[in-house]
Amino acid sequence: MSFLSGDSLGDLITSHGSEKQAQDGNSVTLSCNYTGVVYNLLWYRQYQRSKPELLLSMTESGDPVKEDPSAHWLSAKVDKHRKLMELEISPAKTDSAMYYCALVPTVTGNPPAPYKNLIP
Fold first, then answer.
1. Where is each Ig-like domain found (predicted)?
2. Is 113 among the domain residues?
3. Is 87 a residue whose pLDDT tops 70?
4. How far is residue 53's CA from residue 50's CA, in Å, rounded to a whole number?
5. pLDDT digits 0-9 by tens, 43-71
């Protein structure tokens, strides 16, 4: 079984290692560090020739919200002081997929308008 975790959003989030392997029935933990003030932390899974699917989202201080509430094999936690997010898959199953960590930054200030309507 192989697990890959990817980088996302430039310097804002960084994965630990590029490939993890686990025997059937064991657990595997994927982790990412992030910087900045975040609104949401996300974990995605992508099988070959498929689009990424959201597994769960969480805030720095809240519990994870799973997209599939019956996914008892997934757990996640955040250490906001170390800016570390972890995803545990237990028990691991025979499959191979890419796992991505991502974040939604907190917007501060006023974002620029997408367009300006000028009337002469």
1. 10-101
2. no
3. yes
4. 9
5. 999 999 999 999 999 998 888 899 999 89
